[in-house]
Amino acid sequence: MSSKNDLDAQITEEMISYFNIRTAEHIDRVKNNMILMEGYQNLDIQTLVKRGEIHDQSKMVEPEKQGYIWLTWWHYCKKQGLKFDYPEGAQELVQLSVDHHLKSNLHHPECHQKSNDMSWLDIVEMVCDWTAMSQEYDQGSCLSYVQQNIQKWHFNEQKMQDIFDTISEIDKRIQKKI
Questions:
Q1: CA distance 124 to 172
Q2: What tens-digit pLDDT sequence spans the chain (178 residues)?
Q3: What's the distance, CA 111 to chain centroid?
Q4: Is 85 helix (H, G, I), strand (E, B) or coil?
Q5: Is the dihedral of CA 145, 160, 35, 22 positive or negative?
Q6: How far apart are CA 146 and CA 152, in angstroms?
Q7: N or C: fewer beta carbons within 10 Å in the chain?
Q8: E strand map for 50-167
C-alpha cells in the first residue's frame, strides 16, 4: 500500500489549484445562502455569517486536506468525462478524510450523538450546504436529494419536518432574490 507521503507526491499543482478554487467557491455559496436565512428561527446575521465563514474549513488542513484533494479531483474528472482511477491507497485516505469531516462539523448529522440533537443553526447550515451543492451542479432545489437520502440519518418526524420547512424557506428566499 502507498504511504501518505507517496500519495502526497502524486498530487499535482493543478489538483491543488482546482481543490482550492472549488472549495472556496463552495464555502462562498454556503455563506451567501446562510446570509439569505437572516431572521429564520431568530438567527441573526452575525451568527450566520460567522458560521458560513468557518464552513468546511476543516477540509483545508490535515487530516482532511489530502483526501479531499483526491476526492475533488475524482469529481472533476467524472464531470469532465475523463478516466481517472485513484492510485493505490488514495481511496482509503479519501474515506478517512470524509469520515473525519462528517464527525467534526456540526452541519453533519454524523457529528452529533444523535442526529436529532442538531440545533436550528446546524440544520440551516446543513440545508445551505445541500443547496450550495445543488447550485454548483445546476440542479435547483436540494429537495429531491434530501427526499432520496434523509432516511439514512434517522431523524425523527419533527426534525424531518424542520428540515423540509428549512428547504422550503431557503427555496422561497432564493426565488425572491432572483
A1: 14
A2: 566 677 877 999 999 999 999 999 999 999 999 999 999 999 999 999 999 999 999 999 999 999 999 999 999 999 999 999 999 999 999 999 999 999 999 999 999 999 999 999 999 999 999 999 999 999 999 999 999 999 999 999 999 999 999 999 999 999 998 7
A3: 13
A4: coil
A5: negative
A6: 10
A7: C
A8: none
Q: Which three cell numbers stand for residue 6?
A: 507517496
DSSP-based three-state secondary structure for 43:
coil
- C-alpha cell recorded at residue 96: 478517512
Contacting residues for 13 by C-beta, under 8 A, at least 6 apart: none
Residues 6+ apart with CB under 8 A from 109: 115, 118, 126, 153, 155
Query: Are residues 97 and 63 in contact, defined by beta-carbon separation less than 8 angstroms?
Result: yes
Q: What single DSSP character describes residue 16? A: H
Distance CA 30, CA 26 (A): 6
| Dihedral Cα 131, 137, 143, 144, nearest 10 deg | -160
| Nine-digit cell string for 92 | 482509503
Is 3 in contact with 89 (CB distance < 8 Å)? yes
- Contact of 101 with 93, CB cutoff 8 Å: no
Q: What are phi and psi of 88, to 5 degrees?
A: -55, 130
